[in-house]
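Schema walk-through. Below, the input block comes first and the output block second. Nothing else is stored per chain. Lengths vary across the set, and this one has 293 residues.
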Amino acid sequence: MQPMKPFKARRDPAPSKTSYRFQRLWLTPVFRSILRTGVPAFTILAAVVWYLSDDARVDALREHAADLRASVEQRPEFMVNLMRIENVSEEVAEDIREITAVDFPVSSFDLDLALMRANIEELDAVAQASLVVRAGGILDVEVVERVPAIVWRGREALELLDVTGHRVTPIEARGDRQDLQLIAGDGADVVVPEALELLAAAQPISNRIRGLLRVGERRWDLVLDRNQRIMLPEADAVTALERVLALNTINELLSRDLVIVDLRDARRPTLRLGVEAQEFLFQISNDKAKDDA
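--- output ---
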């Protein structure tokens, strides 16, 4: 008779409480994220903090980074050797070189192109500027210059202004720019577009125009040769001027001995005669009085 085998209890397939709770936690998305991401990140952060807690290691790391950056920035392909300024006057080019003050050769990483562009655009003669580092170590400066449109006689000097009234450059004498018309008076520089519109309307008598005078910072006088002046109203000055020019075309009004054509009041245009015309009218009045007597 064979001996009986010892009884062996079957293992219970049900999980233990600890295993059950761990499995329930593992099914939670937040818990899985903490284990998969949070714990490694915290470990790495702790290692970085421990490494950077030593000042000597931090200084060495900074020095290594500085050396690495310098070795990259000083490479020949990143060096700028000259500045090229094209399609501008020599005076403006000299002003640009002076205001940028770049000591070549220089690394392109050391050039603050935005600041340089802002400084260049502060020049009166520059409307717009762009800076680009080209291949071959060339800093290209492209500039749009302001175009003088009129001469303004201010209280202190003669200045060239563009079509917007922005200052371009001063000039020594009126004869330096005889090709441009003259405006004068306080506030004339603020309303340059209006002045140019009036001068365009007065093109038929442009050879007689001496300039536009701003009066009281509110209206214009058109000054002509032979000491003639057309006093324009505050509103609709162009229309009033065109009306005078139409009369001049028909009746040669401005060819007569007139000193002032006053259009300030549209309801009552006034003419002021010259001395000779006044004497002539006075003589006619005397002769008529004698004939009536």
